[in-house]
Amino acid sequence: MTRGQAERLMPMLEAMLARGSVGWRDLSALGVGVGPGNFTGIRVAVAAARGLGLGLGVPVIGVNGFEARALGHPPGTAVCVPAPRGQIYLMGASGPFMAAAEDQTGRFLPQPETADLVRAIARIAAARHQGDGHAPPVPLYVRAADAAPARDLPPVMLDG
């Protein structure tokens, strides 16, 4: 989604729970994709997951898109994540970076369907949930946001 993530997220989650015949209180942990991806969408997802985790009293486990795409493939498999303007994000030894163009060589794994990514995030989060302690998830940003700060002056606060 390019817009409307905040408005659609909770109804989508409610529908998903209903399809599985479970409720919020049936959850023992939450997994959330932390990026890279749409800047606002990642912020909305991580904030919603952290809020739900606090409200439900369950841990929230972040999984990045590189890990989700690599699940089930041999270690060291080249993974890329689509980026804006025909670019791709790659994971290097020092962390993620942006490459200049789409993979034309076929060296990278093909992009999975969204449902497959969701399942991979859930599997990785479930495996991590079995381990010790988890730091709260934070967004994984590879580049700065395209958004610019508002140019409007803040409202004047009146005493009284």
Q: What is the rounded distance between the termini?
A: 43 Å
Number of helices: 4
Strand order of the largest sheet: 3-4-5
Structural class: alpha+beta
Unreliably modeled segments: none
Portion of residues in beta strands equals 5-15%
Largest sheet features: 3 strands, antiparallel
Q: Within the CATH hierarchy, at the fold level, what is the topology?
A: Nucleotidyltransferase, domain 5
- By DSSP, the count of extended strands is 5
Keywords:
160 residues; three-stranded antiparallel sheet; 5 strands; alpha+beta; Nucleotidyltransferase, domain 5; 4 helices
Account of the 3D structure:
The chain is of the alpha+beta class and 160 residues long. 34% of the residues lie in helices and 13% in strands. The chain contains four helices and five strands. The chain is globular, with a radius of gyration of 18 Å. 21% of the residues are buried. The mean pLDDT is 86.
How are the SSEs placed, and which strands pair?
Layout lengths: L4 H15 L10 E4 L5 H18 L3 E4 L1 H6 L9 E3 L5 E5 L2 E5 L14 H16 L31
Parallel strand pairs: 1-2
Antiparallel strand pairs: 3-4, 4-5
Task: Summarize this structure briefly.
This protein is α+β, with helices and mostly antiparallel strands and 160 residues long. Helices cover 34% and strands 13% of the residues.
